[in-house]
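Troubleshooting entry. The earlier prediction with uridine-diphosphate-N-acetylglucosamine gave an output that would not parse, so I re-checked the input for stray whitespace and re-submitted. Clean input:
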Amino acid sequence: MDALLITKSGKLGGKIQLKGAKNSILPILAASVLTKDDVFIGNCPYLSDIDDMIKIIRSIGGKAEWDNGGISVCCHDVDPFGIDRTLMKKIRSSIFILGPLLARCGEARISAPGGCEIGKRPIDLHLLGLSELGVGVAEDRESGLVSCYGRPKGGMLRLRCPSVGATENLMMAAALCEEPTVILGGAKEPEIIDLAHFLVAMGALVVGAGTDVIAIKGQSELHGASHLPITDRIVAGTFLAATAVCGGDVLLDGAISGFMDCTLYKFRMLGMEITDYGCGIRASSHNRPKAIERTVTMPYPGFPTDMQPLLTAALAVADGESTIIETLFESRFRYCEELKKMGASIEQEGENTVRIFGKRLHGADVKAQDLRGGAALTTAALGADGITYISGVEHIDRGYERIERDLSNLGANIERISDF
Ligand code: UD1
């Protein structure tokens, strides 16, 4: 297994070229199952989560290949019972395959998905939504297998909470159904708008994506499409956090500021100067970050839960006391124990609140236990005195294409050690 070796870095400077958003590409890859035709998705980062989704598509009989910085897919024939159980358990996003498979084949069997251990992460909203669309759902709790029968028939349904994944799964399930489907209480994330654009490019009609009422009118057949996904707002936010910790001046080429309002607002509160230069974001920081009294994670357009660990990394070295309240996932502060090994002063209050007292950090031997928590340790290590070893880098590789390459290009002292 690889490790990252990070030595305290000076100010960052230079330009990062952002690639497509993991959280767009994963559902869009699954949506490729909706057509027999060729699909191409451009500007895809090489991430293990995306590679696992490619393998899932292959396991049901589709063709999917990395192709010139993008991914080509052709699902001419698919086997609704063929999904590899081990792959299903590897990533949470494997659940996305269920909606498209049902729409295409009228039946499917999957096992419960895996993914980052940041909370319970049930799939009840996905299954309830499918049954409201007329699908028969049978769960075998002992084996963890979920069997579904019947094509989605369309209709109106309301989500109990705005789950990103359930909204996307149900949009895809509805896309081969000529009867309209209306999802009330859907999530509004930019990646949902991106998925809607892809479904429209394949021939479906989708209105309302980006609001909490989304209507889908499908076609009996969808055709192939090429799509350029939106860039990754969480990766962009990670480089903002690194710049807040180290200071410096960086350009995030391709970053879409309009999708990052709340994140940019918080980083400006840290004292950063952030401007939109038309095709990206310029961020500079010249002083120690300022503390932020209170930050609460919320569904979009609120402050993203995925940015929570990265903001904590910046607040851990800030001048003063900050509080973060996590409202989406129950176990999303595990990385704080590792940050404490680096000297961070963090107190957890109850399940969902941490108080952070900014101070100077020092290097330590720490372990990434989930994707964004691992990115937070990397960010904090850039500003910590001495040397930090981060193991568990496979978690970071799920969402960052060679994070050490991009950070070194900005001048950070970071290298990957193979077989640590
Ligand atoms: C997606 C993102 C993830 C992000 C999260 C919240 C992808 C691939 N992943 O995950 O990076 O952290 O949104 O912005 O896009 N819930 C249920 N039942 C369900 C589904 C969800 O109770 O069936 C709850 C969850 O436990 C959680 C909340 O809904 O408390 C939001 O989860 P959800 O939006 O579904 O997250 P994901 O789609 O898994």
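This one parsed fine. The radius of gyration is 21 Å.
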